[in-house]
User: Fold these one by one.
Assistant:
Number 1:
Amino acid sequence: MNGNSGIINNGGSMKISKTAVGDGATVNVPAARKKKAEKENARHADVGVITILAEEARAVHGVLGLERVRSGSLPFFEGTVNVRDVAVRVAAIRALAQGQRSTMAAFENLRKHYNPAVIVLAGIGGGFHKDVSVGDVVVTGRVLYYDLRKETPDGTRHRGDMKEAPAVIGHLINSFFTDYGEPAKLEATDAMGAVHAFRALTGPIGSGEAVIADPKSEITRYLETVNDKILAVDMEAGGLMQAFHEQGEAQAALGWVVVRGISDGADTDKNDDHHGIAARNAATALHTLLPYLAIGGS
């Protein structure tokens, strides 16, 4: 029995590349080629959306008409939303938990899997200003992170961090309010099919890990002192602005926006009674805002 194995050439030239022969043979694909293949197989979106609570996610999926897909172990929702003759490709993910850290992770997951030009944090928040009521929606690219502080024997010294989205986002938000008025007067349809009006406003919001339920709390006094135009508070926008600030150049998002439906007054009457309507209003405001955010980049 002939035990020969391998390749035999009986004359002439022969070129062999990217080929493996023998037991346990492997071929190392160049990293650049592997990266190109991964990029070709990746999904893309114009706008990425982060939600936190189940009610927020359901509202966004329902209002925007998104369908569930799976990319690896992560559940995404995606779809093409047509608003005012503009087709916007949207991908959404629900963060694993409340707070800044999970929001930063959700931001990176959207960047990695969809490379959206703009990432939006959509859902509910607490009203903070006297001119803001339950059911209103705040649309903003300005966030004051209030949890930076120093504890001393003489009390707390706050070191807030205010960041703004890039100027291009500010112009897009301004264009939205130029067209719809300020405050904008919009309408949402609830789960029962009833239509109700609500307002959308723009202005800075405060963000930190603490849930504010005391109008006389130290955090409240600090926010009122540092900026008397803060409209709302939440627990995640600071993570969004920081994730954008620290992102690498590869697949870099061009900007971020926060859309918060007001569910309570961040006071002792704080409860979950208005979560549903606040989330629905925020999703509806986002739907109306989408064509302004379709600035390419995917």
Number 2:
Amino acid sequence: MPATSHPRIAVLIGALAVLGLALLAARITGPRMVTQLEAETRTAIAQAGGRPVEASFIAPDGSLSRNPLLSGGEGLSEAVRDRVAKAVAAVPGIGGIRWADGTALAESADIVPTQLHCQDDVEALLNARTIRFEESSARIDAASRELVDEVATALRPCLGSIIAITGHTDSSGPEPGNLALSRERAEAVRDALIARGIPADGLRVRGMGSRHPVEGLAPTDPANRRIEFSVIATVPIKPTPVDTPGPR
């Protein structure tokens, strides 16, 4: 064997050893780091007055992430939600912040998401027609399936953005039931859009019950039973080592 082969083998062995140590470190420190981030985030949320809010550090693929997904606290004011998100963003080691209902806070905590033209296209469709459901059910009425087809087509040019789907009801029933039904209907629309080729990872749902009737309508008016869409551009979040851990 030529003498020059030995240095190459030594370099290869050294590289493999470094790689093995890096993978081992990812397995050991990743979970511990996220556990610490979870504890510090809970404290930050409480101090910011957002106790109903929870933070998940699990990415869509099941891996650990430094980019928490915030959920809960739908009844909080926008000012409180903003304060909570910024408090979480200030925790050392946290990456970008994202709300489960579709709003996002970039790492700078100062970038405001912008609406895209797709929302105008969808609103134009829904101004004339409404996605209807079977009575007291989250099952989309057969007559509305064509409208859902058109909504999916209108959203397709803006794939890669975040699409928030919000369900509303009238006030004819008890509010806990209204909240549950409005979310179930939003989820039904989400599932229908996924079936029509809209990626699931860009869809967010929430139910508002009867708290936000259409301006000018009585809270009991059936026209308050509706689905609204918010399509926003987002800023890409920088990946971190914890987002791509080694094999387990």
Number 3:
Amino acid sequence: MNLSFKNRIALHYMIATAIIVAIIFTIVFIVVKETMYNNIDRDLTFEVSKHSGEIKLLNNTIKFSNKAEWEEIEHREIQINPVFIQIMDANGKVMDKSPNLKNDQLSFKDVNKFGTHFNAFLKDKTIRQIQKPIESKGEIKGYLIAAMSLESSIMVLNKLRNVLILSYLILLSVLYFISRYLAGRSIIPIKNITNTTNRITKNNLNERVELPIYKDELYDLSSGINKLLIRIENAIERERQFTSDASHELRTPLSSLRGTLEVLIRKPREHAEYKEKITYSLTEIDKMTETIEQLLVLARLDSSSNKLNFNETVLLPTLVDDILLRNNKDITFKNLSIHLKTDATKDLLVKKYYANLILENIINNAIKYSKDNASIHISISSSKNRLICKIQDEGIGIKPEDISNIFNHFYRSDALDHKDILGNGLGLSIAQKSAQAINATIKVESTINKGSVFTIIF
């Protein structure tokens, strides 16, 4: 059965309610039935007790002592629900009976099998009977039987049963439509979610699902979808940023490389000229390779799913030594003096992958922008359970108005004034992203023509 979600909710609600109502109606019917039988049984017990004192035993016969009085009462009064009384001997033979039985007689049944109260028939009419043994000197002489008609009680029970069944069917019909209405109201937020998500496309990711008023499961669903949309939007934005950055940064060196190669094939050249142009081309290829690698690093840092994959730790002084060793050629070429000082009193472990990206780019910039024969001071200390690494150079410095922009992609302060210093403006962006990945902080202080101080707090 292929039902809609609204109809399934209505059906399940109706089934659950139907079961509960059926149980309640059944209990009501049983309680009324038992109450009715208990009242009749109580009346029969009273009648038997009352007439037990009117029995007279003579030899082997059992008779009523006031039968004439009963007959007189019958002529004077109309009995709405008459009580039938009958006496039987121990063998089941009728000894005497009330005048209202006339030519009829009450049935005799085994008390051990049927109990003291049981249903029987009189003239095809249902009656309720009670049998009480008549004892004399510890010996059962016979039985006193009392009976009352059950026809009116059965009629009431049948009417009650029919009313309950009819009410049950009507209730189910009404309940189904009410359930569909309530289910339709309940899924309105789901319809809103569906309509909103259907409107969202790759070029329209800024739309969000409206949050319900009540903070229930639908609120959590809507909030979860909005968070998912934010993640998707950020992922697509990173993709667009990567494409834009790559095309922007690779277009210039590719154009330059193409122009150089076109010049080379126009006419034969001297060996030295070929060597010069090829060397230039290789330099441009190296620049493009470095740019692509840095863009890939930025893309990896933007992906939060990769942050858990780089948890290897390393001693901070050891990491700084390794970075200085890798840059030893440039340090020697510029005749720089490196001063490393460690004052930390706590564990000096940092996450290797991210710390390496941070320090590699900042130390590389310190070397790149330092003047010849200058000094670079690197200090490592600790404070309030945090490691602090400070890198101070004696380079060209950064303008105060440019400090807030140096962590942006491809931003270089006074790039045109320093064409001889190679770079693409991605190093500090990588350092900043890496710091954010491990909750580190990078602070910058700089003075033009005096140098810069980068403080990294791990």
